[in-house]
């Protein structure tokens, strides 16, 4: 088993936690040793939830392994039902507890708890977190969804939102509003904020809106097969995809009502002169496959960027991502090792990264702007404000998300151009701090000398010329020039070397 400092996905029982924590009236009894009990940190610290996750652990210790750990599990189930009085429970084992083979699902089914019990078999050493979400929600639907008549009015279910999801809560609100504009009510949004009773009502809707295939595609397929509910395939991220989504919903629901687009800001931007400043900027995308594939279209077709590379960490979606990457003329990177991602970003040297919390850190080290577009994310990507990435308001949010890192780069470039001015030179200090002298500034990540080119010295004139290059490509220019000089055995870089390297890499 590989251990890593960073990981894109946790084990599958974390996915089950995300379903249980997103729902109401559902409790998760997890057979787990002391040390696997970290749900509180995930959901209260990162997502800033105002209540603890509904998870009960058996929390067995090393000394318990010689006794009856199965008895600990039965006691934990009985106490959880008595204390929390849930409508239903799900039961399973953590990755460590799986090794002792107590079969918590089988044990729970033999207990008369008086409520539905949904056993989970999540292979911890073959599968990961998103699979855990998908499988758990699918098992809940199979156990609880009841055949019933359709609602009198055209309704749909919104599937896929979970706890710890990237902007899921706001996305669901935005898509609910968009559907309301089209005259379509939402029957149930699940699993986020749903109850077991709501899961039972899923078959009453006429169709399903699948927003997050990673966490609900298995359930959507089962509902289509068993209850005759078609589901949408288009993920409404970006203006073009949202319009395609609207057309797909119109086709399924048999309506011709269009939602309001009057508050869109992106069309103004694409028609403005300002947009040309960022046209052609090379971007690299990495994250879960759904967000990467949707954001590639936004980056290229709506922002005018060039997609230099793309990849995903969830191998279940490798085939559609590889197919899309070919259409963009790039090779897909399918990996769950952040070091592979970092190496690819260094190789491609894009002007911007669209990625996860991991890529945010990689971008800081390499001096490349990064916008977060996908989980895994940290606390700053659970904003208190309304901030969807789906629908038309989501397109406005994405407009800010993609433009601001590069615009800030331009602003820094302008400050660099005037660094000799009496007001802006390095020793002047921030103007809003009363003009006090600044401390010596640390060397920026993109201006650090790579280990492979140690010993190559920049002459003052070349260093001054380098500072005229815009901030967001300066790091690439420095690395290319140093590599060019090192390959030719040069120990000093002058202005001539800088322009010779530029001409060499422009061929």
TrEMBL record:
Entry keywords, A to Z: 4Fe-4S, ATP-binding, Bacteriochlorophyll biosynthesis, Chlorophyll biosynthesis, Iron, Iron-sulfur, Metal-binding, Nucleotide-binding, Oxidoreductase, Photosynthesis
GO MF annotation, one: metal ion binding
Enzyme Commission number, as recorded: 1.3.7.7
Region (Disordered): 427-446
Catalytic activity line of the entry: chlorophyllide a + oxidized 2[4Fe-4S]-[ferredoxin] + 2 ADP + 2 phosphate = protochlorophyllide a + reduced 2[4Fe-4S]-[ferredoxin] + 2 ATP + 2 H2O
Pathway(s) served: Porphyrin-containing compound metabolism; bacteriochlorophyll biosynthesis (light-independent)
Cofactor note text: Binds 1 [4Fe-4S] cluster per heterodimer. The cluster is bound at the heterodimer interface by residues from both subunits.
Residues at which [4Fe-4S] cluster binds: 36
Residue intervals of the Nitrogenase/oxidoreductase component domain: 12-406
GO biological process: light-independent bacteriochlorophyll biosynthetic process; photosynthesis, dark reaction
Protein's UniProt keywords contain Oxidoreductase: yes
Cofactor: [4Fe-4S] cluster
Active site, per annotation: 274 (proton donor)
Class in the EC hierarchy, top level: oxidoreductase
Light-independent protochlorophyllide reductase subunit B-like C-terminal domain boundaries: 458-502
Keyword flag rRNA-binding: no
Chain residues that bind substrate: 409-410
Summary of subunit composition and partner proteins: Protochlorophyllide reductase is composed of three subunits; BchL, BchN and BchB. Forms a heterotetramer of two BchB and two BchN subunits.
Family assignment from sequence similarity: Belongs to the ChlB/BchB/BchZ family.
General function of this protein: Component of the dark-operative protochlorophyllide reductase (DPOR) that uses Mg-ATP and reduced ferredoxin to reduce ring D of protochlorophyllide (Pchlide) to form chlorophyllide a (Chlide). This reaction is light-independent. The NB-protein (BchN-BchB) is the catalytic component of the complex.
Name of this chain's protein: Light-independent protochlorophyllide reductase subunit B
Lineage, opening ranks: Bacteria, Pseudomonadati, Pseudomonadota, Alphaproteobacteria, Rhodobacterales
